[in-house]
């Protein structure tokens, strides 16, 4: 089970920044931010003092966004051979969580442009340029090898989402879009996926194939990444566990050659005596596969495979999801 942990310097900065806000005020802001996020509302509309809102975001949403971006980047890296992007465009960067994750996964990165209308403390170490544009009217200033919009599309009107993708795709080699792992978040990703295919993109992850998404309208495709909670985070949320699981939906599109798996596990496997049941997406259909103990090699592999991983297992296994 893999648990993502923020870099130590980032954890230290967050603790020091949060120390400037009274605990009761910060706790109230954390609950308001969580409620807004679960309801799919624009967190920028929260009526809170700037320092309080930023501290609450740093403590709760930055680690979660970092964890999701980390998992997505790891899987995208596994699908694109010799992937070495040098320039990053972070759309709706916020406090730079996606940039932080990219720094950890992609040592080839040399510079980043962060597009963010509001003023946040950026924690990225990469040389960066800040572009305070409104994403509803954003226009690319220069091409980038990698473009990420993490938890960004859902805060835009539908027509602005379409426009953003149409502007971003012609100016990048690889475009990664991440949204909450909810029915609404997946619906946004599904629409973006269709638009990218129409624009001629190649899907790198998580889909095993091109074509229409086989997930039925009453269901959604999402994954999860386990992340560490700080001691302060646990106190603010009255939480007993030292971790939480961030659920997310995503699509990674590219112009580069990709190696897609034959299928992907869509749910936590069910392990019964002598039988493992997997729900998998083959790209053209979602099927249930039952692997009995008598099929020794496949049974052994099925007992080890996790939600979100390729099936059959690849040589570069996905490490994002946990049980």
From the structure above, extract its key features.
alpha/beta; Rossmann fold; 14 strands; globular
What order do the helices and strands come in, and which of them pair?
Elements: E1 3-4, H1 8-18, H2 23-38, H3 50-79, E2 87-91, H4 97-105, E3 111-115, E4 128-131, E5 144-150, H5 158-168, E6 172-180, H6 183-198, E7 202-205, E8 223-228, H7 231-237, E9 243-254, E10 263-265, E11 270-272, E12 275-281, E13 286-292, H8 296-304, E14 310-311
Parallel strand pairs: 1-8, 2-3, 2-5, 3-4, 5-6
Antiparallel strand pairs: 6-9, 7-9, 8-9, 10-12, 10-14, 11-12, 12-13
What does this structure look like?
This protein has 323 residues and is of the alpha/beta class. The protein folds into two domains: 252 residues, Vaccinia Virus protein VP39 (Rossmann fold, 3-Layer(aba) Sandwich); 49 residues, no CATH class. Helix content is 34%, strand content 24%. It contains eight helices and 14 strands. Strands 1, 2, 3, 4, 5, 6, 7, 8 and 9 form a nine-stranded mixed β-sheet that branches. Strands 10, 11, 12, 13 and 14 form a five-stranded antiparallel β-sheet that branches. Strand 5, helix 5 and strand 6 form a beta-alpha-beta unit. Helix 1 runs antiparallel to helix 3, helix 2 crosses helix 3 and helix 3 runs parallel beside helix 4. The longest helix is centred in the N-terminal third of the chain and has 30 residues. The protein is globular. The chain starts with a strand and ends in a 12-residue tail after the last strand.
């Amino acid at each position: 089970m893999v648990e993502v942990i923020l870099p130590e310097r980032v954890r230290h900065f967050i603790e020091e920044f949060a120390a400037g806000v009274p605990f009761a005020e910060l706790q109230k802001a954390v609950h308001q931010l969580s409620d807004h996020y679960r309801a799919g509302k624009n967190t920028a509309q929260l009526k809170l003092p700037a320092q309080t809102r930023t501290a609450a975001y740093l403590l709760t949403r930055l680690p979660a966004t970092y964890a999701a971006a980390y998992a997505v980047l790891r899987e995208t890296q596994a699908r694109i051979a010799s992937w070495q992007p040098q320039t990053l465009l972070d759309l709706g960067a916020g406090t730079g969580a996606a940039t932080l994750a990219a720094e950890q996964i992609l040592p080839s990165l040399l510079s980043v442009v962060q597009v963010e209308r509001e003023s946040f403390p950026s924690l990225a170490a990469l040389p960066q340029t800040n572009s305070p544009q409104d994403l509803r009217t954003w226009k690319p200033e220069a091409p980038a090898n990698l473009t990420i919009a993490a938890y960004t599309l859902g805060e835009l009107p539908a027509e602005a989402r379409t426009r953003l993708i149409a502007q971003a795709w012609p100016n990048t080699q690889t475009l990664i879009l991440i949204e909450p792992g909810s029915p609404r978040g997946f619906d946004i990703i599904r629409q973006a996926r269709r638009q990218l295919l129409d624009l001629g993109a190649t899907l790198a992850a998580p889909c095993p194939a091109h074509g229409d998404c086989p997930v039925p309208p009453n269901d959604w495709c999402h994954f999860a990444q386990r992340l560490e909670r700080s001691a302060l985070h646990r106190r603010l949320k009255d939480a007993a566990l030292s971790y939480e699981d961030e659920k997310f939906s995503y699509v990674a599109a590219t112009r580069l050659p990709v190696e897609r798996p034959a299928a992907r596990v869509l749910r936590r496997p069910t392990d019964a005596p002598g039988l493992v049941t997997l729900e998998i997406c083959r790209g053209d259909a979602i099927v249930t596969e039952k692997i009995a103990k008598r099929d020794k090699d496949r049974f052994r592999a099925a007992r080890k495979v996790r939600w979100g991983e390729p099936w059959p297992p690849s040589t570069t296994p996905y490490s994002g999801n946990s049980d």
